[in-house]
Amino acid sequence: MDVIELRSDNAAGVAPEIVEAIAAANTGTAIAYGADDLTERLHDVVREVFEHDGARVFPVTSGTAANALALSAIVPPWGAVLCHETAHILNSEGGATSLLGGGAVMRGVAGDDFLMSPDSLRRALDSVGWGDPHYSQPTALSFTQPTDRGTIYSVDQIAALTEIARERGMRSHLDGARLANALVSLGCTPAEMTWKAGIDVVSLGATKNGGLSAEAIVVFDDHASDELVYRTKRSGHVTSKMRYQSAQLIAYLTDDLWRRLATNSNDRMRELAAGLAEIDGVELLNRPDVNMLFVRLADEHIDRLEAAGLLFYRMGPGVIRLVTNWSTTPGEIERALTAFRS
Ligand SMILES: Cc1ncc(COP(=O)(O)O)c(C=O)c1O
Asked: Would you indicate the residue range of the signal peptide (predicted)?
């Protein structure tokens, strides 16, 4: 039976352009540990794409490493990272930020649609005992963009929240494991979504959008960059064959490949959601702003969809998660909709 992959964009393969970039990098030898020409060029590419002459980039192998390292560079061990209470760093990374942050804690902030709001952030900040060593001192704010529930912050929402954080001397991080999906959805530039909106450090994901264990930390803050030189090494992320990660990231960010791949996944999700919205007994739980949709339907129908070859995650009784990816085809969406209709 032909299955239709809607579990996760992590389940997708590697984009052909990325495979070609790895093959092209696979000639001759190159100096190890990121001192190679490709990694050097990656810095230029990142500076151009993010329109920031001082940006520095640190390739790493997972999104969890990118987040934990990025945050460790902007929180002291006695510090706290504020994030939405549903954030991936808080709920799905096994406390990696606390480990690499030397004991720093994460504190969840409430907010509708899985987004922190200025009011909820102010309330959280007002409840801190500032200067009192009994309280972890918030020094970083972390956004998940898009969120784990498929919602996105507008650029103005990010800017408003980073400004509140900056008033308290905090710096801001953006978990962009799916940054490209948010960028194409909002139609803004990488600069507008990040440093121009007050973000100091970005976890830039590529793996979910066609890369092969290639993620990067993009840093606009010199102090954090200086820290990351040592922190990436001590955590085992200065890989000897970094040139293969750098080659992927260069290809990813060149000629809009990242946007093209993310446009496919977002467009397929929009088609899927539009079709599902017309089927009785199927309730959409979020707007299809990116490539992720949560859907409520009867458990016996969920069982039948599974039997028909649809792959998805069950989120509890009567709720499933559907995720499209860079390689999802219109034909697969049509077949998925046929299964839902029947
Ligand atoms: C929003 C978000 N951030 C970070 C990660 C972590 O990425 P990785 O699984 O590569 O560690 C994920 C993975 O699913 C994610 O969804």
From this structure: none
